[in-house]
Amino acid sequence: MKLSSKQIAALKVIVFILCLVPLAYLGWGLWQDMLGANPIENLIRSLGRWTLKFLLITLSITPLRRLTGMNALLRFRRMLGLFCFFYAVLHWSVYLGLDQSFNWVAIAKDIVKRPFITMGMLTFTMLLPLAITSTNGMMRRMGARNWQALHRAVYVIGICAVLHFWWMVKLDTTWPKIYALILTLLLGMRLAWRLRLAKG
Amino acid sequence: IKIPGVRPSTYSTTEKPNKYEHITTYNNFYEFGTEKTDPAERASRMRIRPWTVTIEGLVKKPKLIGIDDIMKLAPLEERIYRLRCVEGWSMVIPWVGYPLSALLKQVEPLGSAKYVQFESSYQPDTMEGGGIFGRPVLNWPYVEGLRLDEAMHPLTIVGVGLYGELLQKQNGAPVRVVVPWKYGFKSAKSIVKIRFVEQEPPTSWNRANSREYGFYSNVNPEVDHPRWSQATERRLGELLKRKTLMFNGYGEQVASMYKGMDLRKYY
């Protein structure tokens, strides 16, 4: 199936709106007091999970393209990656503002004391350069090779993000394991293809 | 169902209780799952009648008491207590109950009894807390424990109600323990067995992770959980965090029990 550029543009608008649905849902829940007894915790965790979901969706573009041969998928990757960053910024802001009330001493202590916060901050910091260099202009200025090398950091970011989630959980690691499994699959496919390429 | 004849208590805090709706939908009751909303959604099948509590161990008169007798054992009081969870949030809850000591005295503990162990009900067919991969998150049945003096302390109550009504299943119906100066998990829900013992009992969370969950688990802003600070807490319903109080604000009544103890060591 080949899509015209018009169709792709229309699809992009649809995907863009879809990507905003989780935010709208949470905003509505907050407005209507439907986020339960601890809305701030609910908000932070939901935004965190959506960040992770968008990260995994972004990482699935390349394998999906290889499996289906649909090159048009690539046209959506940047938008999905930026939505991952968008939800990461919201997740991070709600933590700093609503959870910690911008109490920088408490935040600094939290970063030192709690490995999962340390890991979260690290993950967020690593996302920043990728978001900044996501424009065509930056890509041109950096050169394709450098740009690609930098953006491979997303593999490490994926691992760090799952660890951040895993270490946050008190006891029941079911969901972090599910995310870890999907991530392993997505990265494993790349590795397998690369090894086969190297061999043959 | 309103419980008749509940009297106010001088041990109650004057702080504003959390909403009934929040107290009954934001629970940690891992037998039903690890999400806060799981117990309210999944506890309905738990059988709470008939219900008996066995009181045994180092006692003169071991006993099996039915829930109706437990309800009538002592005058019911409303005890509005702060509840501080080890996870860093807190609530104010209007419990209905009476001092645990009234129940414990029934069996005449022996001098050799130093600790009291509480065992929660475990109903594998009505509790589906195994998570998706089916592995139990804690060793069931849930076991908690207190030192004898802690168990006999007037602040420690047997809880049978909430907001003047019978306890909801997700809050530990039909009968539970409430120890307001300790982290919430020390207050065992839906208890079926009380055992007087000589040695410190092995408790569920302590066995799951002894470094993070000590036997005493007194609320203490100066002793951090290994993974987070305990200096502040979010009172549900409030935007800003508040400072956590030593012994959850009950120091005046309970601090003397821990005189001379290093609370960093006995966390």
Automatic annotation (TrEMBL), chain A:
Coiled coil: none
Location, primary (coarse class): membrane
GO biological process, one term: protein repair
UniProt keyword list: Cell membrane, Electron transport, Flavoprotein, FMN, Heme, Iron, Membrane, Metal-binding, Transmembrane, Transmembrane helix, Transport
GO cellular component: plasma membrane
Membrane topology: Multi-pass membrane protein
UniProt keyword Transmembrane helix, yes or no: yes
Transmembrane segments: 9-30, 50-67, 79-96, 116-137, 149-169, 175-193
Required co-factors: FMN; heme b
Cofactor details (free text): Binds 1 FMN per subunit.
Domain Ferric oxidoreductase residue range list: 48-160
Family, as annotated: Belongs to the MsrQ family.
Known partners and oligomeric status: Heterodimer of a catalytic subunit (MsrP) and a heme-binding subunit (MsrQ).
Described function: Part of the MsrPQ system that repairs oxidized periplasmic proteins containing methionine sulfoxide residues (Met-O), using respiratory chain electrons. Thus protects these proteins from oxidative-stress damage caused by reactive species of oxygen and chlorine generated by the host defense mechanisms. MsrPQ is essential for the maintenance of envelope integrity under bleach stress, rescuing a wide series of structurally unrelated periplasmic proteins from methionine oxidation.
Name of this chain's protein: Protein-methionine-sulfoxide reductase heme-binding subunit MsrQ
Organism per entry: Georgfuchsia toluolica
